[in-house]
Write a structure and sequence with these properties.
The chain is α/β, with parallel strands linked by helices. It has a domain of 171 residues: Rossmann fold (3-Layer(aba) Sandwich), CATH 3.40.50. Helix content is 35%, strand content 25%. The chain contains eight helices and ten strands. A six-stranded mixed beta sheet has the order 6-7-8-3-9-10, sandwiched between helices. Strand 4 and strand 5 form a beta hairpin. The longest helix has 16 residues. The radius of gyration is 18 Å and the shape is globular. The N and C termini lie far apart (38 Å). Bound molecules: adenosine-5'-diphosphate and magnesium ion (MG). The site of magnesium ion has 5 residues, from helix 1.
């Protein structure tokens, strides 16, 4: 049984427009799945629905974690069970430093795992772990003391996101366009950071428009997402085919000028 199972998922926006139209996907630790598709095809909607974003309504189907439906759980509870979403547009959190944000996030998850009892991480242990993770992800030391995402460059935001992922140790990580806005060096560092975390304890869903991040992350499974659903599935060769030929072959009607 896969850890994350998405079954015939249909998602609508608040005004009732159906965006995701019947998606099936199963992800286990150790696996990297790429979801590739043109802009506006509903990829971010799928990611938000997985995390329980209140603006999206699941009208049909189910999302299971370890065989149990999580549809009734809010975003915090889903995170406590091991789901992690790296946002396409991370927000600034004024007045909260990166270090204190990470520590409260880690402690919230520890508390949930201890059945609701406070179980704060020892300060020295936390510091050691953050420093090691920052070094690996090439996040400059002084960033720990800066306010979260305030004035961060695109690359800095993404690195801090992956730092958060490294600290929270999710079982399934969903990365939505983590590659957008990164220069080639930042892209490589971020992608290698993700790759290092994928293993017996973590699987990943890498949502992207472009092939380039996949050169580093090397997914075993590629799902082509068009018009709210998965239209073709394959291995890494499919990502290369898309890079060479674009999405046109998979889009039923030409939609020139899509954003
Ligand atoms: P992608 O991530 O593949 O580019 P999105 O999931 O962001 O696609 O968007 C798919 C479609 O759903 C777009 O037409 C977008 O305008 C629409 N959409 C997404 N979120 C909302 C929302 N909260 N309210 C209304 N429309 C939305
Ligand atoms: Mg998107």
């Amino acid at each position: 049984m896969a850890v994350l199972e998405i079954k015939n998922l249909h998602v609508s926006t608040e005004d009732g427009t159906e965006i995701v139209r019947g998606v099936d996907l199963a992800v286990s630790p150790g696996e990297v799945h790429a979801v590739m598709g043109p802009n506006g095809s509903g990829k971010s909607t799928l990611a938000y629905a997985l995390m329980g974003h209140p603006a999206y309504e699941i009208t049909e189907g189910d999302i299971l974690l370890d065989g149990e439906s999580i549809l009734e759980l809010d975003a915090d509870e889903r995170a406590q069970r091991g789901l992690f979403l790296a946002f396409q547009y991370p927000h600034a959190v004024p007045g909260v430093t990166v270090a204190s944000f990470l520590r409260s996030a880690v402690n919230a998850i520890r508390k949930a795992r201890a059945g609701g009892e406070d179980d704060p991480v020892k300060v020295a242990d936390f510091r050691k772990e953050v420093q090691a993770a920052m070094e690996t992800l090439k996040v400059p030391k002084e960033m720990a003391g800066r306010y979260l995402n305030e004035g961060f460059s695109g690359g800095e935001k993404k690195r801090v996101e992956i730092l958060q992922m490294a600290m929270l140790k999710p079982r399934i990580a969903i990365l939505d366009e983590t590659d957008s806005g990164l220069d080639i060096d930042a892209l490589r560092i971020v992608a290698e950071g993700v790759k290092r975390l994928v293993g017996p304890d973590m699987g990943a869903v890498v949502i992207t428009h472009y092939q380039r991040i996949l050169n580093y992350i090397e997914p075993e499974f590629v799902h082509v997402f068009v018009g709210g659903g998965i239209v073709v599935e394959g291995g890494p060769e499919l990502a290369h085919k898309l890079e060479a030929e674009g999405y046109e072959a998979f889009v039923p009607d030409p939609v020139g000028g899509s954003v």
